[in-house]
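Minutes, project check-in
Item: structure for the 146-residue chain
Input as provided by the requester:
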Amino acid sequence: MIKKVTEDSIIVEKDEEREEIKTKNFIWAAGVTGNSIVQESGFETNRGRVPVRPDLRTPDYDDVFVVGDCAVIMNPDTERPYPPTAQIAIQMADTVAHNLKQMVSGGEKLQSFEPHIQGTVASLGHTDAIGVVFDDKNYSDVQHPL
């Protein structure tokens, strides 16, 4: 969590440990929302995304699954939604495939979604990126890849 922004640094805190990151540039990009078609679908939504049960079904329908950018599932550790990323969407698809197979074959043991975050990367323009991959912070440009 960002605690403070100064003229030449950002102070962040995670697990009660603070870290100062030296920088002259700070870009705030927040506020991800889902597709408007989801908002207009009639399902309960949260910022344009459908809150789902642990097995990725909607709260009100046992035969409707929602995945990817259209779904919102809370991280119990942070009490915040997991980010709508491709790696989470792919993992959601695996869970739903298993659950659909169970339902079609008459099985009752549906799997709960448990994301395995491998890292995250953000583009910082045409040639730069920053990321955390396997708990290692990285900065890269075209001349010096991650």
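Outcome recorded: Residues 86-104 form the longest helix (19 residues).
No further action items on this chain.
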